[in-house]
Structures are given as C-alpha cells and as structure tokens.
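User: Hi! Is it possible to get a structure for several chains at once, not just one? Here's what I have:
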Amino acid sequence: MTRYVIRRLLLMVPVAFLVTIIVFGLMRMAPGDPVLVYAGEERDPESLEYLRHLYGLDQPLPIQYVVWLEHAVQGDLGRSLRTRQKVGEAIMQRFPATLELGIAALTLSISVALVIGTVSAIKRNSVVDLLATGITLGGVSLPNFFLGLILILVFGLALRLLPPGGYVPLAEDPGGNLRRLILPAITLATASLAVNMRQVRSSMLDVMAQEYIRTARAKGLRERPIITRHAFKNALIPVVTIIGLQIGAIIEGAIITETIFSWPGVGRLVVDSITGLDYPVVQAVVLVSALSFMISTLVVDVLYAWFDPRISYR
Amino acid sequence: MTAASERPAIATAPLPVPTAAPWSAAVVVFLRRNPRILIGGGLVVFLLFVALFAPVLSPYDPIDVEPTRSLQPPSAAHWMGTDDLGRDVLSRVIHGSRISLSVGVISVGIGFLVGVSLGLLAGYVGGVIDLLAMRAIDALLAFPGLVLAISITAALGPQIQNAMIAIGIVAIPVYTRLTRAQVLSVRERDFVLAARTIGVHPIRIVLRHIFPNVSNALVVQATLGTAFAILAEAALSFLGLGARPPTPSWGQDINYSQRYLSNMKWWMSTGPGLAIFMAVFAFNFLGDALRDALDPRLRRSA
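Assistant: Yes, the chains can be modeled jointly so their relative placement is included. Here is the combined structure:
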C-alpha cells in the first residue's frame, strides 16, 4: 500500500511539471501586453522599459518560466495587475465563499442522489425510478446558468421569497448568508445531481445482483437489513470516487454559478480577472485548480484501493 | 416492440430476394429494435434542418434592430418576444443553432482526429512514444474541463474560432484513452498477428484491422462529445469568451438577457435557454441510445 502511494506520487511529478508549463505558456500567449495593463496611464517608453526589466519580462521565456516556477513553489504567485494585491492573498480571501457554496451544493446533491438513487434501484420502474431517469436525462442537458436565471426569476423576482443574488459573510449575518446561499446551492447541486444519482443507482443495481445478496436473502434475512447492511456499503465505493472528484473540481463548478449570483468566490474572481486582463490572477487560479484536481484524483485512487482489496496496488 | 411483429420481417424480407439491398433491411431491423435511436436521431436531424435552413425558417432578420418593437412579450407576431433592440428572439434562436452545431461538429472533429491518431500511435507503437503521449494526456486531464477551456480561450483571444479549438483540445484525452485501450487489447490478437506475418504495412494494419474494432465506442463518444461541446460553447459564450455580438448565439444571448432580468423580461432568456437544453438533450439521448445498442460492454445496468 505504501509503495503504491509512493509510486503514484512519483508519477505525479512529471505531470505536475507539464501542467506548470501549460499554465505558464497559456498566459504568455494571451493577447495584450501585461506591462501596459500594469503601467495604466503611464505610457512613457523609458518607464515601460523599466517596468519590463523590473518584472523580468525582458528575459528569455525559459528563464522567465524558471523564475516564475521558483516563486510559485515558495507560494509566491505574483501580484494582481489591477489591485496590486498578492495573488495568493486574493485567492485565500475569496476561497471561504467558494468553499461554503461548494459544500452546501455537494451535501444537497449527494443526499438527494443517495435517497432517490437507492429507492429507484430497489423499486425498478416505480414513480421514483421514473423521476430519477427524468432528472438524470434532463439534469445533464440543462445548462446551469439557465437554471440559475430561472431560479432568480421565479424565487427571487416573481415570488420574492429569496434574495436574487449577493453575499453577506456568515459571521456577520448568518440568516442573510443562508438565505442567499439557497438558490446558488440548488443551481450548483443540480449540475452534479444527475451524475451522482446515475452512479448511486447503477452501483446499487450491480451490488444487488451479487451472489452474497442472494445468500443473505436465502438465509431468510429481511429486505431492509440486506439493503442497509450488506448492499449499501459496497454500493458506496464507486460513489466515493465521484464525490472525491467533485471536491477536487470545486472551483470549476463555482465559475458559472458564482458569476450569475454575484457570489464573491474564486470562480467569480477568475471570470473578472479574464475580462480585466489580469493574467497573474488567472494563472494562479488555473494552477491551483489543476493541482487540487490532481491531488483529489490521487486521494480517490488511494481510498479506492483501500476500500476494495480486490484492486491491486501495482 | 414485440418479438412477433419483427420476426416475419427478418424471415421474409431478405430471404426471397437476397440481392435487394440487404443492409437497408438490416438498418430497419436495427432501428426497430432500438426505438430510442430513432427519437434521438430525429431530434438531431431536426436541429440540423433548422441550422441549415435558418434564413428560410426565421420570420425576421436576427440582427435587424427595430427600436419601435423593443422588449415585447411573446405574441402572434413574435412567438418568443423581442429583445431590447427590437430583434426577434425566435429568429435569433433559429440562427443561434448554426453557431452551436458548428462548434459541436468542429470541436468534436478536432478532438476526434487528434485524439484517435494519438491513441492509435501510442497503442500500436508503444515504448517511449506511448509514455510521452500518455503523460501529455495526463497533464491535460489534470485540468478540470471548463477551467482548461476557459484558459485556452482566454489565451488565444475571446473568439468563437478559439472557443472551438479550446473545446476540441479539452476533448482529446477521452478519444486517446478509448482508442489506446482498445488497440492494446486487439494488438496481439490472431488476426493482427496474421496480418503482420504476411507483411501488411503497419499503417494499413492500424487503419484496416485495428481501427474498425474501436469505431463503435468512438461513435458513441463523439455523439456524447457533441452534447458536451454545445454545452461548453454556451458556457464560454455566456462568460463572454465565445461569439461576439451581434452574432446570434444562445449562450451569449442569455448573458445579454441578464441585464433585463430584474425588469422581468423573462422571454429574452427562455428562448435561447430552451434551445440549448433541447440541443444538448438530443445528442445526449442519441448517444445513450447508441451506447446501449452498439456497445454491450458499456451498457448501463438497466
């Protein structure tokens, strides 16, 4: 097991290296001269030259890359061109909001998926099963920005039940925070609900067809303990995988939802930074989201091998 | 669909006249056994029809500004209402299908061509090429899809062509992995060894003997991939990284409609939103049906 983890970590190194090259390369390809953005109104050629020198932008690209990587490894991701704030700080400042939204959405999505997915697997062709099939088919095809707008229109503007957007910190006004959380959380949860429900249903069906379930039935066990004690735990293994991957992709999910609901998290930060040509910020968010996605994939694989002894640690 | 109704068709149609287009009879039987393909396929054909004949079908010019009829709710003259500039929403939705479908086709084409070639090469040649190709694929997979698409589009410049390229690049790994795994599993099979023994050129082996074994899974993936591409383009355009105004584009039109949301001009978003939903649904539905019909190993436990 330890050897398996070490092997996977070593395999991650060249991939992480490639990832940093891609991130660096993409942002250098981007249109617009960063110095011009940085200088603002200052267009004097001499001071532009000075700035270029100051930020090492007159160096050859490979050297710029090494310098950037050296700083990045030490946690220094540069400064925002617009606010001059340290990028790491800016991300950490926005992260709690993203985390709150992500956790709320994931909890909602998983609990609904577990209930409806399990029931639809046990009671095939029932109303719940039909509902599950409908949600699965529709949910993957519904763009979440459209769903978000509908929710804002119906619950925020027409019925005036909930605020149509915005954010207040949890510590300042817990009630207001939660009221503003509901619509974005539903929007974000729907996107993963279809995938989660399909996974719960199909892995539950797989497990229920196993021989040990038949044995449990044959020895006269009632249906409920069979499902809760024997089937459910094993059916959860593949579900853990996709939950792990969704945790790793938390920033990705937040991009669109945060934009619609004016939720001041990392996702909205990256969208604003792209429109503002603030490349250090974009670069940092992309790097952080790729790394967290890689790490969560690794953790999921390790957990999977640990849960299921049949998987070899090669 | 009952067994009784299709059996006579198989028994009587091809047998008396074996030369009478046996494949078309096979297609009929195939579709009758898989009615979902017919539904999904019908929706896709409908979309293609709308995109192809958009100028004939749309009642108004999609970019024709007419301030006197701005922000009208749906009516007999404007089925989906008009936007703030008086443009007919239905006409914009009809024309928007062209952008969405071309992004679907072109980006899936890019992902398919690059991904499959890389997969065939890595799987068949193996060795260092395989190792390098797969690490590159791992690096692409290290990014969440939408994050990668957004950063590539931002890097190349926010234009619809660049969005197509970005979505295509994001799609590459799926095709490579699918192809490579299949190549590895058939590479040492007897018919490939036989072909190699009699001196068939490697390129011919790959294209004529190995590729056909992957094609079913690839057709399924390409169909589902089109749904993903349409959704991704809508998201990029929604974020302002795709089509530029005044070009009609579903995602971009929804983004634009946001500013009139608080005035309850719901029809500006509803038309394009439903269009995206329908287009993505059509390809997802068709893809699922094709998977169940063509690829029994991937069949969902249902």
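Chain B is about 70% helix and 0% strand. The two ends of chain B are 18 Å apart (CA to CA).

User: Great, thank you!
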